[in-house]
Amino acid sequence: MRQPATIKRVSAADLLATAPPAGPDAGSPLVAVIGGLYLAVYLWRWISCRRDPKTRSPGVGRLIAFAAGCGLMALALGPPLDRWAEQSATVHMVQHVVLLDLIPILLFAGLTKAMLRPITKRLHGVEAKVGFLALPAFAVVAYCGLMYAWHVPALYNQALKNSSVHALEHMTLLAAGILYWWHLMSPVRVRYHLAGTGPVLYMATTKILVGILGIVLIFSPSSLYAYTGSFMGMDPLTDQHVAGTVMATEQTLVMGIAFAVLFLKMLADSERRQLQEDVAAEAPSRA
């Protein structure tokens, strides 16, 4: 009878000692260049808005958020994490959740309506032309569908073996994350606006579906992916269980924080509407 997997207790020094060397990564310079270009364009627009007296200046916090998003992109896709991801399901999972959630959240947190003003009409034009691709429902399908698809063993293992497939995996997950969070965090009004309880249903549906995948990985009795040997004291099955825990935990935390933010936003919107109604009601009596 197969013995249940156990997590070996190791010290921090043991973890660092057993971690494989980062080694050279051919894709890391490209990641750094792309991140640098994004940040340079953003910084130019941020300074322009700050100098324009007719524009509401974006705060330093916006700059820090966007820079953190670019930096996290370079960290997640560059050495040593990218090379470790080829040897550990846990590190690979960290990459996935960072690309789907953390990077898009930070990038959108750095944007304002004024900063996007030069391209707002183009964005609305693109939304009109792509049809159903601009629907929030499609963003949910893309987010969940790609996450499930890339965790099918055949595709997952192919990404481990082929650097081009691995790069495609990262590109599609990041694109899905940006599309998904666009409907929640876009500083400009989108064509299909989520109103009322829409954002809550949008978030809950996605996070619950992806969280189920994490639970499947946690309780899988056998290793699904082509990892061999141990990584930081974990055998492949234990590594997979930890990866599933990372996925389920991250989805739960993001959903909880997002619900809190959405609730506060709904309260603020309700108070603003009430204030506008009170002002409108008092206007005739003053006249």
Automatic annotation (TrEMBL):
It is a multi-pass membrane protein. GO terms for cellular component: plasma membrane. InterPro entries: Caa3_assmbl_CtaG-rel. Its main location: membrane. It is found in: Cell membrane. Pfam families: Caa3_CtaG (PF09678). Keywords: Cell membrane, Membrane, Transmembrane, Transmembrane helix. The chain crosses the membrane at residues 26-47, 59-77, 97-116, 128-150, 170-188, 200-222, 242-264. This is Unannotated protein. It comes from freshwater metagenome.
